[in-house]
Amino acid sequence: MLSTSTLILLWAIALFIIGYLVLLYRYHYRTPDTITILQCTADDFSPDLLRERQPIVCRGMGDTTVFATLRASLSSSSTASPVSTADQDTVYSRLQHIAPWFATPQPIQVPSIPPSDQFQQSQWDVRLWVQLRGTSRVWFVAPGGVSGEGPSNEDGYVEVVLREGDGVFVPFLWWYRVVEGENGESGVDNEKRGVNDGVEVGWRR
User: Fold this and answer.
1) pTM to 2 decimals?
2) How far is CA 76 from CA 67, 80, 150, 181, 192, in A?
């Protein structure tokens, strides 16, 4: 039978572990009230930036070897192209350095985020949208500044313009909405409106 001092020590260790896990959870899933759009290039991107829990615009992400094949296939076609299992495995294996612990890669969606008149809330731990063709505008609203069912178009949002080759990381629980491109289109021209002009990858626990 364990002595009283041993039981007290075990209880103290258990409480310490529980407290540590609670603090770790709150830190990992913290939701800021303000928006600061971080910027980088594909060459100087560091996974440490993801800890800031802010949207990150990464120029040249679509030009990397990770997305080069997908970008080439879309730029040569005006119709949707399914992403094969082999291509998905290749993409996620090359992005393994930014994958969260114990998170599952999500199917690569093409099209990914079509223009919408409603905000959506990201439920993925890491979500990366890469503009492979054309131009898109993305509105962001910080989760800490939203009450009720979600933000409206009148809520204070920050707009990011994604041009061909740009990528943006959407933080967990942030609200986002993809609107039409700079010339009033989501893709390249009227005939290609609604075409797949981006690809979305990410992980979710």
Assistant:
1) 0.76
2) 14, 11, 38, 20, 12
Which pLDDT belongs to residue 200? 84
User: What contacts 24+ positions apart, CB below 8 Å, involve 19-26?
Assistant: none
Instruction: Indicate the residue type of 113.
Output: I
Contact (CB, 8 A) for 144 and 177: no
In the beta sheet, which residues pair with residue 121?
175
Q: E strands along the chain, which residues?
A: 38-41, 56-59, 104-105, 120-121, 126-131, 136-141, 158-162, 167-170, 175-179, 198-204
| Helix residue ranges per DSSP H, the chain | 4-28, 65-75, 85-94
DSSP 25-36: HHHHT---SS--
**pLDDT digits 0-9 by tens, 143-152:** 876 665 667 6
How far is Cα 32 from Cα 54, in angstroms, rounded to an integer?
8
What is residue 182's DSSP assignment?
Answer: T
How far is residue 159 CA from its own chain's centroid?
15
CB neighbour burial string for 123-162, b if at least 16 within 10 angstroms, e if fewer:
ebbbbbbbbbbbbbbbbbbbbebbeeeebeeeeebeebeb
